[in-house]
Amino acid sequence: MVEEVDASSASLFGLGDVPNGVVAMVWPLTSICLALLARQLLIIHPVFPCTSLLLILGIGLGLASGFTGLSALGDSTRMWAAIAPELVLYLFLPPLVFSDGLFTNTHYFRRESGLCILLAGPGVVVGCFLVAGFAIAALPDAAPDWKLGAALGAIVSATDPAAVLALLKEVGAEPKLSTVVSGESLLNDGSSVVLFKVAVFLAAGGSPTAEDVLAFLALEVLASPLVGLAF
């Protein structure tokens, strides 16, 4: 049976008790409505890029969720903020990667594949350790050593290019540039996952042997592409 939330959580609707499943839908539906409204407003009055307006609306939505008069929105926001990380990884990431791959210009991707691999491989590693160095210097409590700093760097080094691609499309950038950004994002997730797993393993006190390293690389670097090609 679905649990019931407190009556105050339904103040946004003016109803009594409502199921948690209904409250959970408040935040995504509100976000979708605001995004559609922003899109229509910018079609009529194109003042600045849609992504900038969405950022402002997102910040406003986050602040509004704390108001007592919008308790249902706040409860819904907290539900999504507490979502299991594994659910995000396995439920939301594959469709995003598939969508990027489906709409990537294969002609430009083949031509620029070397640059994409360079950015998604060594580029992610360099970005990871740059973030680690900054975190150690600026946030010593959160990243007291290179191991935890590298874990943080691996998390933030694989950025999602959705906002960047939307902006490039709005300003009429060359398809080649958009393809490089999109192609790099398709490949950088694997690099960041490998870096993150290694950093967390070392931070936990692990001391891998040469056999462990070879087995890990064989599984993550060689087996994963074979599974992708098989399907």
TrEMBL record:
Gene Ontology cellular component terms for the protein in this record: plasma membrane
Gene Ontology MF terms = potassium:proton antiporter activity; sodium:proton antiporter activity
Instruction: Name the predominant localization.
Output: membrane
**Gene3D superfamilies hit by this protein:** 6.10.140.1330
Annotated catalysed reactions: Na(+)(in) + H(+)(out) = Na(+)(out) + H(+)(in); K(+)(in) + H(+)(out) = K(+)(out) + H(+)(in)
Q: Name one GO biological process term.
A: sodium ion import across plasma membrane
Domain named Cation/H+ exchanger transmembrane: which ranges? 38-230
Keywords assigned: Cell membrane, Ion transport, Membrane, Sodium, Sodium transport, Transmembrane, Transmembrane helix, Transport
Q: Does the keyword Signal apply?
A: no
Membrane disposition: Multi-pass membrane protein
- Location of this chain's protein in the cell: Cell membrane
Q: Which domain of life is it from?
A: Eukaryota
| TM region positions | 20-38, 50-73, 79-103, 115-136, 148-168
Q: Name one Pfam family in it.
A: Na_H_Exchanger
Q: What is the name of this protein?
A: Cation/H+ exchanger transmembrane domain-containing protein
Q: Which species is the source of this protein? A: Chloropicon roscoffensis
